[in-house]
Amino acid sequence: MTPTEVRAAQQEGAAVLDLRTPHPFAAEHLEGALSVQFNRADLVDRVELVFPEDLPMIMHGEPEAIGKVAAKLLSDAGFNVLGHLEGGLKAWKAEGLPVVQLPTMDVDELKERMGEFTVVDARDPFEFKYGHVPGSGILSWTEAWYEADSVDDDPPIAVICGDEIRSVLVASILVRKGKKAELVTGGMVDWVERDYPIEKGMD
Amino acid sequence: MIFKQFRYEPLNQASYLVGCPKAKEAFIIDPIAGLGDDFYILEAADLGLAIVGVFETHVHADYVSCARELAEMNGCPHYLHENAPTTYEYTPFKDGDVFTVGKVDMTCLFTPGHTPEHTSYLITDKSRAEEPWAVLTGDCLFVGDVGRPDLLVGDQALDVMDEGERARTQFATINDLLFTLPDHVEVYPNHYGGSLCGGVNMSGKNSSTIYYEKKYNLAMQKPDAAAFAQFVQDTAKPLPDDYEKIKSYNLGLVEKDELQGAGV
What we know:
The complex is a heterodimer of chains A (203) and B (264).
Chain A: H1 3-11, E1 15-18, H2 22-27, E2 29-30, E3 34-35, H3 43-50, E4 57-60, H4 64-76, E5 81-84, H5 88-94, E6 99-100, E7 104-106, H6 107-112, E8 118-121, H7 125-130, E9 137-138, H8 144-147, E10 157-160, H9 165-176, E11 181-185, H10 187-193
Parallel strand pairs in A: 1-3, 1-4, 4-5, 7-11, 8-9, 8-10, 10-11
Antiparallel strand pairs in A: 2-6
Chain B: E1 2-8, E2 13-20, E3 25-29, H1 37-46, E4 50-55, H2 67-74, E5 78-81, E6 91-93, E7 98-101, E8 104-110, E9 119-125, E10 134-138, H3 154-158, H4 163-176, E11 186-189, E12 208-209, H5 210-216, H6 225-234, H7 243-250
Parallel strand pairs in B: 3-4, 4-5, 5-6, 10-11
Antiparallel strand pairs in B: 1-2, 2-3, 7-8, 8-9, 9-10, 11-12
Helix pairs in contact in B: 1-2, 4-6
């Protein structure tokens, strides 16, 4: 699909799945895009866990080959794939279409500015239970699409997971649903490595 | 770190991915058109890595490279040693330059002999140790054999070094540079087994160590450069089919359609 076709479909409700890694996504992505990192092994399974089957989707991969392969994998699995973005981000920007950033902070900044954010953990409940940032709440990646509306974004949300893959997905969902959200880079791996405090259990 | 060897069996060729899972970035070394750009793009993506640099150990003569296209598609540099006489633009590096993805360092070791721009890449995984653990030896040092010095075209073939001199350079490079690396360092070559880039003693095994090659590489057991050069000549295989055409393409001297399917 050409950039203008993608934009028109977005305005009709289609979701752009950005298949790149978290950092390039945070730096710059198509307005409204959702971050779903690509791999051939379990892309279909993950999309199935996160989104409703009838959601119209458009793939954005860099290089383009990734978008093509993802479109085929997902449409073969029965998803409503409209196509992939031809020419990638470069073509999109050449048309003057909007790109946005996802604000990020590392774990040091999160610790320093703790009171200024609603900390949301995007992992599965068993991981959250094992240890999380004190005061954080859980919005598991598989529930995020359906429950994002109920999350309070005052103060703004800081999303964390083990690494960054699920947190960037949840942050992108929250932003798409109109919430103020930021990504915590380095995730719980960095938090634990620095020996920052951990809270256990589900409350 | 993430390290992956990709084998292309029709030409007994090995290319590599060197990446860092934390940085989510990777380098590709010596990509081959036989596997194709999309192959490397999808392999890297499957590992959750973005390709941020494409490197070649040298300008190849026995297979068609896809380094130019792969770099272009990923919007990243195509790196070659500054001596590489290509007609197209690349990002040049010098001996000793270090390229980094996350916790992984890749150090350029200028190892001329097979070609005048030939470079090996020393790999250090700083998440584990400051010492290197592997070296990508290209067509300098193979498992059981060494790269042949007679696959050049045009100006390179006519340059001041003749075949014998290049063989002597190869001997010095391996002895004075590669064989001074720590014994434990693993050796990952650009070819193995039946490849025509080495002689008859090349092993089908796809990796080795500095210690093992120092001890058992037949060509490197020769007492001096002259005996080595003679041995390399005596144990050489036939020249690869169409090597002049393939090398000319990889140098940018001819277009792809002139290859007529050679070297893939």
